[in-house]
Amino acid sequence: MLANETNKHWKIGYVSGSFDLFHIGHLKLLQRAKERCDFLIAGVLTDELIFKHKGKMPVIPLSERMEIIGSIKYVDKVAITTPDIIPKIEAWKKLKFDVMFTGDDHLAETREEKSLNEVGVDLVFFPYTKERSTTGIKKHISGNSHAKASIVVTCYNKEKYIAGMFDSILAQEWNNIEIVLVNDGSTDKTGEIITKYEPEFKKRGYSVIIINQKNSGVITAAKNGLLACTGDYFCIVDADDKLMPEYVSLPTSFLEKNKKFDYTMCNFDIVDFNNPNQEPKHNKMSIEDGEKNMLSCYLLSIIFNMPWLYMVRSSYLKKDFFKKTYGTSSKGTHEPGFNIPLMALNGKIKVIDKSLYLWNKTIDLNRHSYFSKYKDQEKHLVEYHKLIELAIKALPNKIANKKQKDFFISQAELKMLTALLGHSINDNFLSDGHLYKKKALNNLLNFLSSWQIKVNPKDLTGKESLFIYWIRNMFFTEEKYKLAKRIICYGVKGQVAENWLPIILLFAKTKFQIELWDKNGDGKDIKIPDFKILKKSDVLFVFPVKKEIVEEIKMELKKIAFKNAIFSIGDMARYLGAFR
Predict the structure, then answer these.
(1) CATH class held by domain 3-137
(2) pTM reported for the whole predicted model
(3) Which helix (H) or strand (E) holds 566?
(4) Separation of alpha carbons 385 and 373, rounded Å
(5) Quick one: CATH architecture of 486-577?
(6) Alpha helices in 144-231 (DSSP H)
(7) Catalytic positions, written as ranges
(8) What is d(CA 26, CA 18) in angstroms, rounded to the nearest whole number?
(9) Distance (Å, rounded) from C-alpha 307 to C-alpha 338?
């Protein structure tokens, strides 16, 4: 209910907020809340919760914000708002208030109001103080005190879409931006559009570097743009896409406050710019913060390969790397030249769990990396592999020795061969792929044979897609594990195991003793699970099941201090890959 709809007075009230950069809006909320109750509890959000919901760390840390709120005469008790009490009903269970007060900018939370009403608790909305907000204060005082972030934009004949990219750059929340525009000899109106927007960028307070060059290809354009950067942080984007307003601010502000991290990676949406009514396709990054094998993730296509996913600390990745890793080719993509030095340095990565980039689906379906004929796709992938090989070999030996470089190149070759096999079995990708399926499979198996991995093609019939995922993960790392005497597969009668167990047995049955477990087992070929018989020399493969069952299994294993359990198909492949 709205506060002006009732004169009711309550015994215990509760209000929760960030209370960062405490201002008059916060004070009025607390004052109005205290006027309507005898005892007021103020919940203060943790630093981590604020970052999760707003993508930015608070200016004032939790301990200081709590001290400030505790000193306000309207507040009788201060509590910490932790993730478990973000749902209002959970907060009530813990704090037992009679009413919760909030701003009317949360009026849409009708479901939470209903859950509180069901236990006799009211949710009361006060008018939001629009003339003053923490976000507004931050914008007012920031000016150009932000660290400088460089955005490199390369363009060749992008007159149709480049204005959209420029408008999205002008809309960035971050104020201290350097734009490096590389016009690669455009023959349309791209140059005119750049000239038109240059004063707009400067009016916004941005610095602008414009490089006009003869048409030399995206590799040279990207390299020249990156070498011209002078920012504390840098990124490179495609001229025909768009940026969300926080594309620069979220990653850059995080890196500013977390010096142990070297670069960030964001989520993105695939959007059809010609069909605005079509829902965007969300793409969430599948890696964890601090992933130590980013280069392998890239080489094996476990992650997306686009450079615009990243915001990089300039002091981490020196520009001189690009002089070597980009090479001099006028054809192909600049992805290897950018990604390989970025990831080979083994810096610490932070995943920004928010879509910050809009990828133009209309353009990318017609770019050079998409083909309808097998031979054309094969040619493209071979050329891409050559660029990868060039960039890897250009790495200084102190970063990767010859053995490591050879392994990285093998990973890239495996990715190329598995990609060709994947394309050949996908009727929606290549019109003639089915004609080359046998060739693609034999090429892959010949490669594996050189690593002493023997596979009968008959065993892969109908399982090619699973095999591609499995074999890429087998080559994910050179990390070695202690050889187990027995691998126990748990949950083998489930759907997941039905798909994956035949693949696992191809690689495990000759090196390990295999035992099959399932709650519905017959007690002979498939045994009933008994965690008490597990030995330190065992490894337990748990096929993915319901979350609650996995937690039960982990609890049982914890009781017997058993640590050799693997819960994902990818990690199973990586374990067996260590013994290839």
Answers:
(1) alpha beta
(2) 0.71
(3) strand 565-566
(4) 19
(5) 3-Layer(aba) Sandwich (3.40)
(6) 162-170, 190-203, 218-228
(7) 54, 56
(8) 9
(9) 7
Whether the CB-CB separation of 194 and 165 falls below 8 Å is answered with no
Domain boundaries, the chain: 3-137, 146-364, 374-474, 486-577
Digit-by-digit pLDDT tens for the chain (580 residues) are 888 888 999 999 999 999 999 998 899 999 999 999 999 999 999 988 887 776 567 889 999 999 999 999 999 999 999 988 888 999 999 999 999 998 865 654 557 888 899 999 999 988 766 556 776 676 566 555 678 999 999 999 999 999 999 999 999 999 999 999 999 999 999 999 999 999 999 999 999 999 999 999 999 999 999 999 999 999 999 999 999 999 999 999 999 999 999 999 999 999 988 887 788 899 999 888 888 899 999 999 988 889 999 999 999 998 888 988 887 776 789 999 999 999 999 999 999 999 999 999 876 444 445 688 999 999 999 999 999 999 999 999 889 999 999 999 999 999 999 999 999 998 777 889 899 999 999 999 999 999 988 899 999 999 999 999 999 999 988 776 777 889 999 999 999 999 999 999 988 888 899 999 999 999 999 999 999 999 999 999 999 778 888 999 999 999 999 999 999 999 999 999 888 7
